[in-house]
Amino acid sequence: MSDFSAEWLELREAADVRSRNQNVANALAARFALRAELSVLDFGAGTGANLRATSALLPERQTWTLVDHEPALLDVAKAKLIRWADRHEVDGERLVLDKGARRITILFKVADLARDTEALLDDKPQLVTASAFFDLTSEDYIRMLAKAVTGIGAAFYATLTYSGLQKWTPHRPADNQMTAAFQRHQMRDKGFGPAAGPLAGSHLVDQFRINGHVVSEGESPWRLERSDRMLIDELIRGHAVAVTESGGVDEKAIVSWLNVTRTAAFVGHTDVFAAPP
Length: 277
Fold this sequence. Notes:
10 helices, about 25% strand
């Protein structure tokens, strides 16, 4: 299963939602509590999970632009959002949803974020957001993004940025070796230059502070149990594939590690909210 497939995004969505840091989410909600409406730009939107999780924190009238480089994922997003909504209507290229008390207008845009980020910000959204995205980007990209977002006076909310912490139950001696090899794979170029991987969260915090925003940050780890068995199994398989590609671990050791039945897992993430003072 690809890390960017609709199936993978659906498998992880419930864990993502319950893992978000509540203090950081509260900071976001408080920032916009007195506003009647808000424009939001969502990077790497995938199947729309970030909108479904974040919209309840925002004002009653919202306009979202969902950006992804895969048109098929945005097609899935549209279908899933229609099912999620209480009511929907299509207005040209816009999807308009009612969810509870909220009226949400959505635009879908295919773009290469490695090339088009600054152009996408030309419309001056009031909030720029993404989930499980920035560990794929580079330190240079994060530096550019922070400067561009702060330059238009927008707030910024990034959730589930991988932090590098991993614990598996039961523990095996090869766990640390496998994690180290996985980190090397995470820091390969994913289209934005050498990926920041587990350093992305700290880069986001540093760059937004350097550019004058006030930053709230908090941990948002996955704490996976037996009920998350399918997600744990898929994580294990994904790690084995990444470690095989990165090299440095004997194939027999990888197979042995892969064949251990895990009953729980801890995977570290970071949430960041940054806003003008």
